[in-house]
């Protein structure tokens, strides 16, 4: 059960305080967080890191960290930053939190510790929650704020959590990027002062800077070694992560909703629960932290716990864009079926009656089929898919409207807007974002999906897109004194809708898309099965984008499609095998017009799809080992997946640069059983070529991991896929 569905059950099973006595240990299988919770005093964070036999020795080892676990404005000294600030009903802007109580409750796979703190003066309660998993080294932390003041208070800063680290040669890795260039790992040492990572797009938060970071405690980040902490904010809206280095002894990480223009007005009796901040620690470098987050995602952080293998699909967008006709769609179904695909998805361009959607400037909001393009309607397409033994999927952008739409003519009040100001328009010069704070709009959005799935129960997949930032920062629904609640209430409204959809349609696969990877985050993954990794399907650049995305997200969440060549964005010409091999390392799909493919391309794709289906259990649900980074400019990049039993593995290698006589490292594998013997088979062998000399050879696990093998990668865009099986 994932954490959001479970939360309603939790309140039932709180147990009284256990062995509290001021010392609180929050432990996972290999990590411990220590908190000093002396009644009547501020809560202190003493340690977070590897589990050792007696971690409290930290107090005798010179000094523990001893900093406030949730530094509040009014308590924390003015050198350090607050994680929490409240303006009380009487205007006072201070808080002095003291511990009142510690409770724990056990869940199937976690222990939740709740530390209740109260302000010394005003009736404000702050509950700091730590959920420690018993199956994986991840601790989720979040804050619940409530009050009984006479009037509303304003939350001026409301971080999900704060982490104190011992100061040292600590390096930060964060994902900086852009549209079509997502998830570029940026690495830098922490220096004195404040480092801020934030995103204020409003509706999406993973383009530019994403809400996930790693901190390498032993100097320059390493993939396979070094003490490393990962932090992931499970939120889809504006956020801010701050790392402050203000004294000689500590660094402080703060993470939460970005408070700019978003100071939240909280009524008496309401509880404000912040998003969860998931923390992980590993002494196996960035790779160890990634695997922890992937495991956690597959068991907790994603819908259906990320289980089950995903279908291989063709998506219509880059093949025909808005130029949809029934014939073209059915031809595409025939084509993907003939190559072994299982699902066809019709992208943007299928809808609009008064305003047909022929480009991106009209029709969002009018979710009726364009009968000129599709005379047989969706029924005919569902029928055609069924006859071919394919599943059918459809594109929607439910949170948006164009000014040129019947929807907007009828409901101009249902879009975000500022009173008396001209609307700022987005994509196509006409796009607006719906006011998801408004329950009527939430019903409208729910009904788009509900009506679609009720009318066409054959629909097995929805691509849920979001192509606009919030530019009009106001809501007609929210009261004038609550306008600043919009950024938060927008995402709460969206989550409410998703919860309703999931309660009724738990099994429809829904892709989270936002102009590519703009919503690749753990705020939405509890309700979605996967995300669109990038609008950029250039296979060479995809190696980098997928590499960066893999630091935090598992492969079955990452949609990766084989595109046409030359690729329309970059003009790059790439062999079909390279394009297939790059897409095969995640959830495989296609994004092209099959009618434009050569026979050779079709044949290679057919082989790739057949081989992928045979190996996808390991690729989609296995543990990732990144072996050679494309960023290290070693000439090639390589990664592998190993299943939990270390029985099956799949290895990918991609030539990134090609020069005569270049030196490339011998490839040392990882994650295998050292004492076992494995046989190697090459898969998706290039048509017209023989398999490499590694094919059919056996090696011991320790040889593969310590000595390694030479990667046979000759020529521009050479690539290899090997299946490695324990004998
Ligand atoms: C942006 C998405 O990222 C694309 O894949 C495609 O669905 C377009 N929107 C359609 O408008």
What is the strand and helix layout of this fold?
Layout: H1 3-10, E1 14-15, E2 23-27, E3 31-36, E4 44-50, E5 67-68, E6 84-87, E7 97-107, E8 110-119, E9 124-133, E10 138-147, E11 153-166, E12 171-178, E13 181-189, E14 193-199, E15 209-216, E16 228-233, E17 239-245, E18 250-257, E19 264-266, E20 271-273, E21 277-282, H2 285-301, E22 313-315, H3 317-320, H4 326-338, E23 343-346, H5 377-387, E24 391-396, E25 400-402, H6 406-410, E26 431-433, H7 439-455, E27 459-464, H8 486-504, E28 509-512, E29 530-532, H9 539-549, E30 558-563, H10 576-583, E31 587-591, H11 599-621, E32 623-628, E33 636-642, E34 648-655, E35 677-683, E36 698-700, H12 701-707, E37 719-726
Parallel strand pairs: 22-23, 22-31, 23-24, 24-27, 27-28, 28-29, 29-30, 30-31
Antiparallel strand pairs: 1-7, 2-3, 3-4, 4-5, 6-11, 7-8, 8-9, 9-10, 10-20, 10-21, 11-18, 11-19, 12-13, 12-15, 14-17, 15-16, 16-21, 17-18, 25-26, 32-33, 33-34, 34-37, 35-36, 35-37
Helix pairs in contact: 4-5, 7-8, 9-10, 10-11
This protein binds (2R,3S,4R,5S)-2-(hydroxymethyl)piperidine-3,4,5-triol.
Residues 317, 347-348, 395, 465, 467, 513, 515-516, 532, 535 line the site of (2R,3S,4R,5S)-2-(hydroxymethyl)piperidine-3,4,5-triol.
